[in-house]
Amino acid sequence: MEYTLINLLNGLSYGLLLFMLSAGLTLIFSMMGVINFAHASFYMLGAYFAYSISIRFGFWPALVVAPLIVGVIGAAIERYGLRTVHRHGHLAELLFTFGVAFITVEVVQVIWGRQTLPYGVPMQLDGPLFTLFNTNFPIYRVFMMGVSLFMLLSISLMLKRTRIGLVIQAALTHPDSVEALGHNVPRLFMLVFGGGAALAGLAGVIGGAAFVTEPGMAAAVGSIIFVVVVVGGLGSLLGALLASLLIGIVQTFAVSLDYSLLSVLAKFGTRLGPDSPGYSVLKISISEVAPILPYLFLVVILIVRPRGLLGTRET
């Protein structure tokens, strides 16, 4: 029971962090049709800016200011770069964001260096919140979950209850009609792109302190973000949330399971030696294949339900 509950809580916290990362890309991908390979770079920038701000002013100002800085950078990239290459098609957009991702990594290494930064959990959020059986559950993981849920609630209310949210939803499917009504759709695209970058920056502020802040952090999460967006369904925040939680929980449980087909066969009295056919495959444990499970899930979803779990159109 202790093992199940602790892994479930850890999986939920990791899944909600993935949702923070994927929420902005969900909006950008669905509204603008842009395959933004630089999205994970905004996550990295959020962590690095948060570190620089926190060592001077503390964690709480960094939590607010760092995502805003990343959002402004994202809006500038859309306005002065992505918008220019948009007329050349999706391939040009893909190559442009791919280049931005590489440039961002190099700039980060020039400014902050290649080493891992000592950006950690703030003192106010360090320590256990409660003890479950014999295991302490950290305050910071609960804080991560709370920020992610608050973000989901805020985005939902903004899209459904505000004027700009209604315009954004209309622009998702009928951009020409929205522009004909007098709304500045290019500016709206810039705001959405900047907002998506800010959400990734917020995830960087939270995730950088919980895990690690180093130049390879963008590459570590880059591919998993696209898995979440496609599995959840294009344009569906609820789908992104569901996919994030599923992937987070499955991976968390998988990495702690040291079972293999070889051990299962041994329990039934069948013992195989190194010379047995397929021995190298049978001895692979669940924890060893845990990193590829999200991608297997992606393949299955694309075969069975191409529009994703809660998507409304084909990927």
Could you explain how this protein is built, in words?
The protein is an all-alpha fold. The protein has a domain of 216 residues. Strands 1-2 form a two-stranded antiparallel ribbon. Helix 5 packs across helix 6. The mean pLDDT is 84.
- Count of DSSP H/I helices: 14
* SSE topology string: HHHHEEHHHHHHHHHH
Share of helix, binned: over 70%
Question: Overall 3D geometry?
Answer: globular
The largest sheet is:
2 strands, antiparallel
Distance between the termini: 39 Å
Strand content: under 5%
**What is the mean pLDDT?**
84
* Number of E strands: 2
Strand line-up of the largest beta sheet: 1-2
Q: Which structural class matches the secondary elements?
A: mainly alpha
Rg result: 21 Å
Unreliable residue runs:
none
Summary, kept brief:
The chain has a domain at 2-217. It contains 14 helices and two strands.
Notable features of this structure?
315 residues; 2 strands; single chain; two-stranded antiparallel sheet
SSE arrangement:
Layout: H1 2-32, H2 39-57, H3 59-85, H4 90-112, E1 128-132, E2 135-138, H5 139-161, H6 163-173, H7 175-180, H8 185-210, H9 217-232, H10 237-255, H11 261-267, H12 279-282, H13 286-289, H14 293-304
Antiparallel strand pairs: 1-2
Helix pairs in contact: 1-5, 1-8, 1-9, 1-10, 2-3, 2-4, 2-8, 2-9, 3-8, 5-6, 9-10, 9-14
